[in-house]
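Below is just one:
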Amino acid sequence: MHVADLETPALLIDLDILEHNLRRVADYTQAHGLRLRPHTKTHKTPAVGRRQLDVGAVGLTVAKVGEAEVMLGAQPPDLLVAYPVIGASKLERLMKVARKTRVTVALDSLFAGRQLSDAARAAQVEIGVLAEVDVGLGRVGVSPGDELVQLAQGLQRLPNLRFEGITFYPGHIKDHGEQGRQQLARLGELIPCMLADLRRAGLPVNVVSGGSTPSLYHSHELPGLNEIRPGTYVYNDLNTVRSGGCTLDGCAASILLTVVSTARPGQIIIDGGSKTFSSDRSVNSSENSFGYLVEAPGAVFHKMNEEHGYVDVTRAEHNFRVGDRIHIIPNHVCVAVNLHERVYGVRGEEVEEVWTVEGRGKLQ
């Protein structure tokens, strides 16, 4: 099949770039002695998860139980649920996953720990646990110091749970500028302090799990960190570019669209809107745009309805006609993937693979 044969909108994955991204991270983690347990939130596709495992990932990371169920299709030796699992029905489903592969759960409360312990004991399985600590994002995680030690001690005492270490997400580090470097330096000072507190309490810490795509290639600068969980790196997007995590030629994902109207001077309408793209604005930029138009970087994709994308072409480097096809690199690829039923793996103008986004909409 040729790309020209695809109906639009269509989410394309450049397989050459995908393979380069996978190999680059695998080489980096191997060179620095880091475990790679990538988050599947970006691709949501077992076939891509299998590719990550085949180039050296020790396991996969998911957020929800539904994603864990889907990612069993990648045959992972290990699944980390990087999200507290609350509720009897979800825990019952998770125990079924745990009978098929090793499962670890990140959590930040003994309430979640006790529910997980009860479910594991009833199912006669053992579940690994990581104590989640907040290192600056202010989302989930206990505070470093006494709160972290108390959580870890409580988890260690619960039956059928295996305390493995700590986890954090440095999502507040969004660039490599002066502020980003200062935040990274503070994190590099904080990790050894947390580990020292836990050791003084007699708590073994085998796993120190962190990392994100923007900070990915600085992970080796963090003393004590031994596992990273980047997600977006697999495809990358415009926000990764703006954060300094990659360049445009590292973006494997783009959305193929058709120009459906040029009726208004200085504007084109494309056949993809809020049902095709993420509504996330670009990070580290004042530009009011939902993506990067590859064929005309001067064009601005500034507005969306459900089925319509409005593109200002007054400064575009190309004159567009109805029927023209364009490629847009989205701001936030993870959310965009969740809107598409299928993605198309392409090499040049040939479609080599078609993947169903099996993790799409797995909210529970």
Residues 16-235 form a domain with the TIM Barrel fold (CATH 3.20.20.10). The mean pLDDT is 96. The chain has two domains: 3-8+245-356, 16-235.
